[in-house]
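Why predict the complex rather than its parts? Because the way molecules touch one another can change local conformation, and only a joint prediction can capture that. The input here totals 374 residues.
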Amino acid sequence: MAERVLDAAEGLVQQHGYSGFSYDDVARLVGIKKPSIHHHFATKSELVACVARRYTTRFGKQLDEIEAKQAEAPARLMAYAALFEQTFAKDRSLCVCGMLGAQVQSLPDEVTHEVSSFFRINLGWLTRVFSEGQRAKLIRSGRSSQSLAEMYLCALEGAMVVGRGVSSSRGPKQISQTLLSQLIVDR
Amino acid sequence: MAERVLDAAEGLVQQHGYSGFSYDDVARLVGIKKPSIHHHFATKSELVACVARRYTTRFGKQLDEIEAKQAEAPARLMAYAALFEQTFAKDRSLCVCGMLGAQVQSLPDEVTHEVSSFFRINLGWLTRVFSEGQRAKLIRSGRSSQSLAEMYLCALEGAMVVGRGVSSSRGPKQISQTLLSQLIVDR
DNA sequence: GTCTATATTGTGATAGAC
DNA sequence: GTCTATCACAATATAGAC
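Output of the joint prediction:
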């Protein structure tokens, strides 16, 4: 049951953000009453912090899978963008931590900490991938791997936000293709 | 007075988003009581729609100024990024329409319309600038001007979101420099 | 674990006096 | 234009029965 609550809360965060959903919304989605939610997660801070932590953990596992399946940096970066595209393709859902990141000034510290952890892990992983790609001469080396990692992450998070705001938008996958085509060395 | 209300509401939207602030918050900021706000803006939808419309109008004027002051595409694109940097530099404020774009599923139609208008205007302007830059051989021509415009806007909006979520982030200006260095043709 | 009932506070919005 | 008073409702959270 606790997991079904987390699933419902995750979806609500992705669609409406921290202050945009209530315990009653969660209760309706899982089919129990509002006070029963409190039995599983005492406070909203705790609930959303758990949502963010689980999301980050799951994301981390997907990063491991990418490294296992894809050997080279360009393919890894494309697979990374596909993670964002999958999320976005489901009803234009936002990245949990992208949404929460935007609302950071309204969040309890407990949640803010989880959000920042998500971004640090992602920036670290991307930095390593870009760095390897540059060493293998598969990625242009004009800019530091840190800068490239940050730019790539920003573009993907931004693609989801802009994609929600305007119907003409192409989504994270297309943005990634445009970006990577400038960075990948031709062979 | 109506304008002071708009100023306060704009700041609150940038910090907390649509569902993250109340009429009472606005009232406290401008120093009058809650019902007096309703006198100037009957509903919250109307208030935030006006905030977004004024923001878009003001932004449009700044685009005109950039075109007047900067003759070439690269300089125009750098000046464009500086607009985002200015906003972000003030207490890590988000772009009004970036914040609202993230929360689009919780917005009244009236507001959604204004948000989409902001993005369409910006994408149109950027597309024209990239297109001119490519014609003048100042911008690489591997990708369509539409794709480049969308990528650039996404990266800047994303830079504000990510920059809020993680303290190590460098902000829109730095992201823009990394991106443009890949796109501008060396002379 | 789930429920009903309730406390407490906050919300957008209105009525009507000044 | 601003105020006090108030409405109707929704929010997070708790107490205590089953």
